[in-house]
Amino acid sequence: MPTPKLNYYLWRGIDSKGQKKRGKVVALCQTQVLEYLCEQNIDVRLILKQPLPFNKRIQERFNKQDITRLSRQWSSMIDAGLPITTSLKLIANTSAKAGITALIWQIRQKLEAGLSVTQALKQSSDHFDPIFLAIVNAGEKTGRLAESLERIASHREKLEYIRSKALTAAIYPCLVLGTALLVTILMLTQVIPELEQMFSNHNAPLPWFTQQVIYLSQATQNYGPYIGITITLTIWLILHGYHHSRRCREWLDSVKVHLPYIGNLHNLTCFTQFCRTLATCCDSGLPITPSLHASVQTCESTYYQKMIDVVTEEVNSGQALHIAMRQSGVFPQFMMQMIMLGEESGRLTDMLHRIANEYERELEKTIERMSQAFEPIMIVILGTIVSSLVIAMYLPIFNLVSVMG
User: I need a surface site. Which of 7, 124, 165, 244 has the fewest CB within 10 A?
Assistant: First the structure.
């Protein structure tokens, strides 16, 4: 369920020494405020609710990293022997964000009402995904909740690391190309028109290269806004279709898989996510079929999601995992061989971790190689564009100087 909205609560009361006190608290509801003030030995006389400003709401809300941090802290405290609700209370007292404090308060309320940890998490926020809930549920049933929470935190950190690596590989080329495009547009629309005016006053013939650049400048000024709108609209339609149309997303994901360089990076990311999630779920005591279902949730490609669903159906019918993956025809030979060894030796979880580690290392090397290759290419592209425009504008000046000389 979605987390309820936070609000400001203005309060007035009297402390244990009989002095009047007032203040404001960011909380979910009045009950949470009353509990907080009761712990401070405040006798509450008045509570007023006020909407939380948008910027404050953004500042106080929690994210995926906060959930990961909560899992690790909770695991450490439970492992140290603290009761579940007491450990949550201690974490809430040290939390810097009102959003995570409110979430922990919700979980505590549901646990104290008699719900299991899995049910309390599920009913508190949709940030606890099916994988999170499945591993926690397995930990509850086996009495290894602290171990399960630690495993979840490690798993989420590794997945986030993979995503950040893939994102880093995409950011640098986009920034350089964006800079090159911006510089080109500024020169074509601001600098070259001024120089063109200067050249026209001398009535001197212009070199062919300069004429072409001037034509490009005029075309940019006349049709640039329409081209920009068309490109923006096209990008918006692609992104909208990717996020709102299953068929469009499947087609784009299938194209992405076969692209040079980008496709290899995308495949490595998906294989790492799949093996890491499957290993974590199996390590937590989940059967192979629920583990495969959970692995689908972390795979960001609908193309591979469909393939994993096919593999899951084959495994359900009694087929060995490595055979089902071989029949799909999309998984690499190395992965299938390692999984086959793991199934035959009874060490599937260990082999899946090894596969994930190997693909993670390969992903890092691929990103490093791409960065090293892209950097000189981008510099050459940017330098060529700028130098070409500068040369085109200085050629007539050199001609004029030679004529005047």
Answer: 244
11, 37 Cβ separation under 8 angstroms: yes
**Does residue 4 surpass a pLDDT of 70?**
no
pTM listed for this prediction: 0.71
Residue in this structure with the two tokens 């071989």, named with its chain if needed: 326
Nearest to 307 by CA among 267, 339, 366, 259: 267
Residue 283 CA to residue 277 CA, distance in Å, equals: 10
- Give CA separation, 232 vs 109, 209, 238, 240, in Å: 48, 30, 10, 12
Q: Which residues of 86-104 are buried (b: 16+ CB within 10 A; e: fewer)?
A: ebbbebbeebebbbbbbbb
Beta bridge mates, 24:
10
Under 8 Å CB-to-CB from 82, ≥6 apart: which residues? 90
Compute how many other C-beta atoms are within 10 angstroms of the C-beta atom of residue 270.
26
Per DSSP, 17 falls in state: T
- Residue 284 in contact with residue 138, Cβ under 8 Å? yes
> What are the phi and psi torsion angles at 22 (to 5°)?
-150, 160
Cβ neighbours of 9 (radius 10 Å):
23
Sort strands 7-14 and 20-27 into parallel, antiparallel or unpaired: antiparallel
Residues 6+ apart with CB under 8 A from 392: 207, 209, 210, 212, 213
CA 271 – CA 276 distance, rounded (Å): 8
User: How many angstroms separate the CA atoms of 239 and 381, rounded?
Assistant: 27
Q: Classify burial at 351, counting beta carbons within 10 Å of its beta carbon; exposed 0-12, middle 13-18, buried 19 or more.
A: buried
Q: 134-172 b/e with 16+ CB inside 10 Å = b?
A: bbbbbbeeeeebbbbbbbbbbbbebbeebeebbeebeee
| Dihedral angle, C-alpha 380, 384, 387, 390, nearest 10 ° | -150
Of 80, 61, 47, the residue nearest 2 (C-alpha) = 61
The answer to whether the beta carbons of residues 104 and 121 sit under 8 Å apart is no
